[in-house]
Amino acid sequence: MKTKAAGTGAGPGRAAGPLRGLAGLAGLVAVLEVLPHSGLVSADYLPPASVTVRALWQLLAEQAFWTALGDTLTGWGLGLAISVVAGVVAGLVIGSVPVLRAVTASTIEFLRPIPSVALIPVAVLLYGTDLRSKLLLVVYASFWQVLVQVLAGIQDVDPVADDTARSYLLGTWGRLRHVMWPTALPYVMTGVRLAATVALILAVTAELVIGAPGLGHEIAVAQTSGAVPQVYALVLVTGLLGVAVNLVARAVERRALHWHQSVRIEVAA
User: Is 176 helix (H, G, I), strand (E, B) or coil?
Assistant: First the structure.
C-alpha cells in the first residue's frame, strides 16, 4: 500500500514540471503582446506576439518557407551525421592507443577552441555559398563535441575490467566491443546531444552570414526588406526547431542508455 501511495504521489509531481514550463511560456507570450502596446518599445521594432503569430501563419502557406526549412534540416542532418561518425571513429582510435593520444593531445587542444565562424572566409573562398560551405562550419563545430566526449569515455574505462578482458585473451575488437564501448556510450550520447544543438546553430549562422539557402538566409532577406514580423516569425521557427532537436536527442539518448543507471534514476524520479 505504501508503494502504491508513493507511485500515486509521483504522478502530480511529474506533471508539475511541464505545467510550470507552459505557464512560463504563456507569461512570455503575454509580455511580448503587452510590451509593444505599453509604449516602452516601438511596435515597429518589436511587434506584438499576435502579429508575429499571424506572420508565421502566412509563412506556413508559402512554399519558399518549407524549401528553406528543408535546406536548413539538410545541412544540419548531414553535418551532424558526418561529425558523429568521424568523432566516434577518431575518438575510439585515438583513445585506445595511448601513444596516439599523447601525440595528438596538443593538436586537439589547439584546434578545438577555434571558433567556427572564423572559418567563414575560408568556407566562402573554397565553396562559395552552397551546401558545402555550410557543412564545413557545421562539421568543424560539431566534431569536437563528439571527439572530446569519446576520449573522456575511453579514459574512464576501468583498468581492472580491461586487464580482465586481456587475461581472457580478448583481442582489440573484443575489448572495444565489450569493455570500452559500453563505458564510452554515455559519453558518446552526451556528445551527440551537444553536437545536435551546435550543428543547428552553425547551420543557421552559415545561412545568415554566408547567404547559403535556409532559414537564416530568409531571416536576412526579411530584415533587409523591412519585414519585421516575418523576421520574428522566422526566429520563432528556429527556436522551436532547437527545442525539437533537443527533445529528439534526449529521447534517443534515453533509448540508447535504457540500461544505464542515470536513465533509470531519471525515469524513477
Answer: helix
